[in-house]
Amino acid sequence: MLGRERFLAACSCRPLDRPPVWVMRQAGRYLPEYRELKAKHGFLKMVKTPELAAEVTLQPLRRFALDAAILFSDILVIPEALGQGYRFRDAGGIQMEYALASAADIDRLAPGSVAPERLAYVGEALKCVRRQLQGQAMLGFGGSPWTLATYMVEGGSSDDFAKVKGLFYEQRAAFERLMERLCDALIAYFRMQIQCGADAIQIFDSWGGALAGSDYEAGSLQWIRRIVAGLPAGFPIVLFAKGTSSQMEAQAKSGIQVLSFDAATDLAAAAARCPVAVQGNLDPVLLNTTPEIVTRETKRLLAAMQGRAGHILNLGHGILPEARIECMQALVETAVGFNGTTADVWSSSRGLIPM
User: Fold this and answer.
1) What is the mean pLDDT of the chain?
2) How far is CA 332 from the centre of its chain?
3) What is the pLDDT of residue 342?
4) Residue 72 phi, psi (nearest 5)
């Protein structure tokens, strides 16, 4: 079975020989070939140059037997398309060109309909990757409206999200205008990605957990639901919303096909309550340890999920820059070769846990 067929079958909760495997941020800083390319061209040039974005996307597929590729890009291309550029701070984190400090700033943003034209380079990169894939699924992606709004209103990375929460609580009409603008842009952007060859779209609600639980519906989920409703019926949509496991039931009813869980969640317990496919959720730090530990923990998760149709093996967040290539190799090889027996799991853990 080809990776694309396996991935799409998992999205539909059909029984499989094994779960498909891919890793968030699999095209990135842990690979020496990526670091070499970035040193030569810089991050933003790689994002905006289709041939370079395609090259980065394909790099991990040349090393590992992954079932899916995810396009190398950035969630902040949407604010940039609307007129709010960004850069990376020297000390780390994101710096927007300016913060949305008033309702007037929000109203000056470009209409969402400009997104496909201004982000045409993303579509070209997708088509370039699609031509070179050898049976793997192709994933496009974007940020959720709430997560994008955190950067746009805070002016960059934030620890407390006080400004965007203030907009939500104190100027709800202005907040909703921003959400509507972002929904329009994301629907148009995702439709373009689908037209250019994406087999699925992953929505990153990375800062969904910053909202109080009682505010998650109004602040984030209703807008995700609007986006899903604006895309082709039944098209595979994956939602990754960090720190929001208490919202699982509502998220699963939003029209998505796959719910991706962070590493803090007991995936087997969550899957037993989840009516859609699930993705995840190994701790990304595991890939900084040893191949033996990665093998053990991957087998442990696969054994816990055995017999549950609709599982996509992944991390519980993006791979870290410090990840070791041999650990990534161990994860993928374990996933591809796992036979699911108790002896298999036990033999992988013997001698590795100090007594």
Assistant:
1) 94
2) 18
3) 39
4) -75, 115
